[in-house]
Amino acid sequence: MISDAFAQAAGGGAGGFSIQGLLPFVLIFIIFYFLLIRPQQKRVKQHKLMVENLKRGNKVLTAGGILGVISKAIDSSETVTVEISSGVNVEVSRQMISEVRGDEKIKPPVDDNKTKTKTVKKISSKSKKWFIINY
Question: Residue 74 domain-assigned?
Answer without folding.
Answer: yes
